[in-house]
From TrEMBL:
GO molecular-function terms, A-Z: 5'-nucleotidase activity; metal ion binding
NCBIfam families named in the record: HAD-IG-Ncltidse
Listed Gly residues bias regions: 51-62
The entry's keywords: Hydrolase, Magnesium, Metal-binding
Disordered: region residues: 14-90
Pfam family, one: 5_nucleotid
Entry-linked PANTHER family: 5'-NUCLEOTIDASE DOMAIN-CONTAINING, 5'-NUCLEOTIDASE DOMAIN-CONTAINING 2
UniProt protein name: 5'-nucleotidase domain containing 2
InterPro entries, per database record: HAD-like_sf, HAD-SF_hydro_IG_5-nucl, HAD_sf
Family: Belongs to the 5'(3')-deoxyribonucleotidase family.
Compositionally skewed regions (Polar residues) per UniProt: 14-33
Amino acid sequence: MSLKTVGSALARSLLTQGRRSSPRGNRLATTCCGSAKGKQGCDGKTKEQSCGGGSVGSGDVGAGPSSDPSHRAAPVGGNKKAEEPVGAPGVSGVRGRSYFTKAAPSDQRSYMWARYHEMKRLVHDLIPPGACGILNPSTIYANNEVSLAEVDIYGFDYDYTLALYSNALHSMIYNAARGFLVDHFKYPQGIRKYEYIPNFAARGLHYDIQKGLLMKIDAFHYIQPGTVYRGLSPVPDEEVLELYGGTFHIPLEQDSGFYGKGPRVKQFMDIFSIPEMTLMAVANDFFITNNIDYDPVHLYKDVTEAVGMVHLKGYMYKWIMQDLGKKYILRGEETDAVLHKLVDQGKKLFLITNSPFAFVDKGMTHMVGKNWREFFDVVIVQADKPHFFTDCVKPFRRLDCDGALRWDKIKSLEKGQIYKQGNLFDFLKLTGWRGTKVLYFGDHLYSDLADLTLRHGWRTAAIVPELEQETKIVSTSRYSTSLTWMQALTGLLEQLQTHQDPASKEVFQEWKKEREELRIIAKNLFNPQFGSIFRTCHNPTYFSRRLCRFSDLYMASLSCLLNYDSNFTFYPRRTPLQHEAPLWMDQLCTGCRKTPHLEEMSTIR
């Protein structure tokens, strides 16, 4: 049974209970399972026992009994309404209840916990063993409908797209940048004692440059509580509120530019930035723990420049070219298979990368063979993305077979040749490759994909290597059951919140505490410091929202294409909006009955 099937079953069960609890369809009131006096109800009690009058809050699923008939709704307009005969067709024989109440059943605490255990049993029964391991890490996910039959041209970035790298590269970048920070920028020698921490940072985090804080922000520009770090230590939520004027909100439109870079806040969007974030945290931690006064702005600039030196001086390129085996480059044979498949299908291919030719040539030769250039109709290196997509000034220059620049004017882009720099506007003129017949793959949402989808209408596909591990975690029984129960518990909080008596409020506090513990458990399964790169509690992350905006498709690796034929159409899931029917997993228990039904509104007024 799939999670969607489980979700639909749980939704039906909740709605069925709601129908049983109301004389008018989905409304929430006590109900009788029998229709004749003296007949046993669903709980084994007689009708008189199970039909006691009472008041029920919004969203109660089968509310408990109350012996006080005074909380029944008064007839609209003061006119007494004739009682319906018990057992009449379509009528339960129960009078309408008022929507809000502070009155409690005789033992309100027992009633609340009975509802809790009833919901927990329901969740447990509807998730059979084996229902959770349904996600395939090799799936291609769609944000927008894309038909591969309409795609004639495939474009690629190189790093983390055609070539996937192992995590061993991160520690090498960190160690080299740490050395530059100490030797070139004269930072204290004590920083050398900090080794690389592989699982500290995650892609998509934001860094407050002036405050020296690393944090995770959701799609609505709010900081996720518990994910703010100064150095290697978490910052208490109370201190975060104080630092940001009593709110978790960050006005990113003021503090950060379109590409995630700003005078106050920087977003780290590519995988190469993970060692940079770690070194940033380590340097901050050293100064803080040793009580050394420092300016976080200077530290940010120095660390950024130190990491940049690793790339500019070519260290990373040398490491990879010296060891092209499994230590650094992964799944090269899969890249070879993808390129062969596309060429055999008659597709045109092109490569646009910021990496130098010698580096790309070495890697592609390792993965595909010496004739790798025969697969591509156009190859462009050192393109200087994202400026390649916005700048119409830089011309293309051709490289000879030794990588030396030629001086001839470029009037056409020829197969087998290597070109440097250039710009997209000249590229479009010379190739005529426009619109939705082009699908471009890249790993950086800003540098690779944003301008192409927003300005030029190309189809875009994001490579997100973290997706493979995250889908494995999501498919575990522990995560799925925790998530489903957390959603069900949230539904109880929402539906029963109109009970305002002291006993109910105490129960609510216990439930909220458990809900927070469930959130922490779910977060720690991905990353103990920052959690999933796609979720902040219940909201999408800022990274996730940009992923949905700038990519039509996303996948763990380019090899996912091998699972689909050339005419396959990708369809996005129709996830419900908040006001739509709760038929999917994420809205099983919440959003069902957020407001009173229309007939009950008259009672409230």
